[in-house]
């Protein structure tokens, strides 16, 4: 299931935009911005196919982490179409940047850095770089768009809007590139939350369809994106004291600027402690957690689902479709903030501070 496919049945101003991009000095970076279901991906697919037919080399950066076309979800991805295509879901990525969640409001910095890193790679080989963005255009989403534009400095920023709804963001981004507004097509269709979830379920399922279980030595592949494993290990006495005070089974823990423990509740009782002193992580939240395999350049080789951690042996079991040859390039195992099954069922999002 895909939200957007290739069509030439578009408003006339889309053809005008296509000509404008084709006649621009190269390489040209084009950022597409619009709210949910405004037709950004449909426009990108139309532009990419038109430019390819003109003989131009096109790069696509898919940063819509919640409704990804280029797999896997929860990443920013770069693809170079080899020819015309019906949907960006058919494209194979050259590089990814790991975000680790489908709801990036707490990851505006990572989103901006990821787009910037992939644009820098893309412009080395492309005549045109098309950047698809999320439909997150309120609250933290405004700052996210500003950070992306400030870092990337696109020659052209295309807004898809209804009744000038994005005037504030247009004004905010105008110092960073030429701003162009298009009206949302009357053919654009809104999708319900259930439809979006179903689309993501199919994407997850497709990505993990060939996955296998591997063991990751956390002495060699550094766990990042979490407070776990930081500081000195807790002593047996410290674990026993914490277990006694809070009725926890303390599975592992570390002491740095505060105590960090992985625990399971033994009893359902009120617990009062300062989060500045103790950071408690429920062991259950680590089960089926999305993780990213990161190479020495900070790029994501692919993602996996954390199934188990043996803290005493510093070993993790991860389900992933990445080949063992590729996995040898991993230097980090970065923790995400969404729990998901290989079937595609999403078990829930975590807040950034929870891990």
TrEMBL record:
Pfam families: CLP1_P (PF16575)
Highest taxon listed in the record's lineage: Archaea
Catalytic activity: a 5'-end dephospho-2'-deoxyribonucleoside-DNA + ATP = a 5'-end 5'-phospho-2'-deoxyribonucleoside-DNA + ADP + H(+); a 5'-end dephospho-ribonucleoside-RNA + ATP = a 5'-end 5'-phospho-ribonucleoside-RNA + ADP + H(+)
Keywords annotated in UniProt: ATP-binding, Kinase, Nucleotide-binding, Transferase
Co-factor requirement: a divalent metal cation
EC main group: transferase
Keyword Transferase set for record: yes
One GO MF term attached to the UniProt entry: ATP binding
Clp1 P-loop domain mapped to chain residues: 34-209
EC assignment: 2.7.1.78
Protein name (record): polynucleotide 5'-hydroxyl-kinase
Originating organism: Thermococcus onnurineus (strain NA1)
């Amino acid at each position: 299931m895909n939200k957007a496919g290739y069509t030439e049945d578009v408003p006339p101003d889309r053809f005008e935009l296509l000509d404008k991009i084709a006649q621009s000095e190269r390489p040209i970076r084009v950022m597409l911005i619009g709210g949910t279901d405004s037709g950004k991906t449909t426009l990108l697919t139309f532009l990419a196919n038109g430019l390819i037919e003109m003989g131009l080399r096109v790069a696509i950066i898919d940063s819509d982490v919640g409704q990804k076309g280029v797999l896997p979800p929860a990443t920013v991805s770069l693809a170079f179409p080899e020819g015309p295509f019906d949907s960006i879901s058919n494209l194979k990525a050259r590089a990814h940047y790991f975000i680790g969640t489908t709801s990036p409001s707490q990851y505006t910095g990572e989103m901006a850095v990821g787009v910037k890193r992939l644009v820098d790679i893309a412009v080395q080989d492309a005549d045109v770089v098309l950047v698809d963005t999320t439909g997150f255009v309120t609250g933290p989403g405004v700052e996210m768009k500003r950070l992306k534009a400030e870092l990337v400095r696109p020659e052209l920023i295309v807004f898809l809007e209804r009744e000038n709804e994005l005037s504030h963001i247009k004004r905010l981004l105008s110092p960073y590139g030429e701003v162009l507004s298009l009206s949302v097509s009357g053919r654009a269709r809104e999708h319900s939350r259930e439809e979006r979830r179903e689309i993501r379920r199919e994407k997850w399922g497709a990505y993990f369809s060939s996955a296998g279980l591997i063991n990751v030595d956390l002495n060699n592949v550094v766990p990042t994106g979490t407070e776990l494993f930081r500081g000195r290990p807790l002593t047996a006495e410290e674990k026993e004291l914490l277990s006694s005070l809070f009725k926890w089974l303390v599975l592992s823990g570390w002491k740095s600027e505060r105590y960090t423990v992985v625990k399971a509740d033994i009893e359902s009782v009120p617990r009062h402690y300062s989060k500045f002193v103790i950071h408690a992580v429920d062991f259950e939240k680590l089960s089926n957690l999305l993780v990213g395999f990161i190479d020495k350049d900070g790029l994501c080789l692919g993602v996996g689902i954390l199934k188990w951690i043996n803290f005493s042996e510093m070993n993790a079991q991860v389900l992933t479709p990445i080949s063992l040859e590729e996995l040898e390039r991993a230097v980090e195992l970065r923790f995400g903030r969404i729990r998901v099954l290989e079937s595609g069922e999403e078990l829930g999002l975590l807040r950034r501070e929870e891990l």
